[in-house]
Amino acid sequence: MFQFGIFAALLLLVALCFILIPLWTARGLAPSESSDEDERINVLLAQKKMRELDDDLASGNLTQEQYDLAKEELEISLYHDLQANTVLNVDENKGRWLAIPVLFFVPLLALALYSIIGDPRAFDSNVAITQTQATANTSDKAAAVNAMVEKLAQRLEKEPNDAKGWLMLGHSYKVLQRFQEAVAALRKAHALLGDQADVMLQLADGIAMTNGGSLKGEPTTLITKAMALEPDNEMGLWLSGIAKAEEGNFVEAVDNWTKLQQHYKPEEKAYQEVQQLLDQANARLGMPATAAKQDQKPTAAAESGQQKDVKALGSVSIKVELGDAFKGKVNADDYVFIYAQALTGPKAPLAVVKHQVKDLPIEVVLDDSMAMIPSMTVSSVENIKVTARISATGTATPQPGEAYGVVEIKGADRSGVKLIVIADTIK
Question: Is the pLDDT of residue 420 over 50?
Fold first, then answer.
């Protein structure tokens, strides 16, 4: 606190010097009497010149216009001559009085501002000591972690066949964001342990970090192998969903993240993070993002009443045909998205399938097993609509100019095959 006071006083003194010195040294100017003799001579000369102008005007040597102009010039000239003879005296005390209020006002203003925007804890030695200790502790912990990691790396140089050690070292490097070294360590673990799901997923994640977060290429290959071994692996579902989304395949991304979300409870942070991914993917599919509803157990009466209709409402058969207006205008390899939505309310897809134009006409079945959100299924909605849309790029988000067809299905009338003819264009 003492040192702070000294530095503050010095800075204040410097600021005051910039203000007070110019005020104290400034000098006011006051006019004094001019020389009477010089003024008298200038006036006499002007009068003589004026008489000459009068004579010239009277004799016709000057026109009235020339006379007026010369007279004006004479008056201006006399004015300047009289002003030039004025002597200015210095007022030694003018303006100095401002120095005294400034001397007191500036320090008071500085203290007032500091009391508003400053931090009084700067004067508390205990706070300063605590902050210093916290910084030192953080630095000590970081140094200790780095020391342990380096010690593990040195040990593995002597014991290169310790697969679990390489796996631990790779994970530690990832935490420290030393991704190149993490990948090198994880490759050694992979070589020793073979195709184990956890190892391949850790390696895929590490490689992606060195590629700016992209999972394309080798990471996707590793994820696919890992998911074939452990289809329900949490990290695998997470990364697989990201990889699918990166490819533009948001339908499969939503499928992976929906399975992943079932590993958590709605109140858990991981559940909400997965829900954000689901909302983003649904938005890219052209569906508004909507928070997943928590599963609610039906009452016994309601459950008994619903069981009769679940089978009938749980699926719908759709036949999709291409309208004559679009035949020859779309490519055989263009994609066809067929998806069900609630007729009113949230527009999250209840079921989605994807085919190509060359498959048309095609008959598909949309049922509860295709639900991307467990609580939103074909059987959970009374009135639905089914849309078939053609996309040349495979983008799940509807684009203006794309061909589509739609059919609305209300109530329990879901028996038989419903026909959709792709004959309209998205505006």
Answer: yes
Which of 121-130, 214-223, 241-250 has the weakest average pLDDT?
A: 121-130
Q: pLDDT of 13-28, one tens digit each? A: 777 677 667 666 655 5
Sequence-distant contacts of 254-260: CB under 8 A, at least 24 apart: 254/278, 254/281, 254/282, 254/285, 254/349, 254/372, 255/372, 257/281, 258/371, 258/372, 258/373, 258/374, 259/232, 260/234
The count of residues in the chain is: 427
User: Residue 122 and residue 286: Cα distance in Å, rounded?
Assistant: 55
Give this prediction's pTM. Answer: 0.42
CATH architecture of 306-425: Sandwich (2.60)
How many Å apart are CA 391 and CA 331, to the nearest integer?
A: 10
Domains of the chain, residue spans: 2-117, 158-284, 306-425
158-284: which CATH architecture? Alpha Horseshoe (1.25)
Angle subtended by helix axes 179-193 and 197-210, to nearest 10? 150
- Residue 176 identity (one-letter amino acid): L
What single-letter amino acid sits at 144?
A
| Secondary structure element (H or E) that encloses residue 403, with its range | strand 403-409
> Cα–Cα distance between 276 and 237 in angstroms, integer?
15
CA distances from 157 to 143, 172, 182, 188 (A): 21, 16, 15, 12
Nearest to 87 by CA among 25, 26, 29: 29
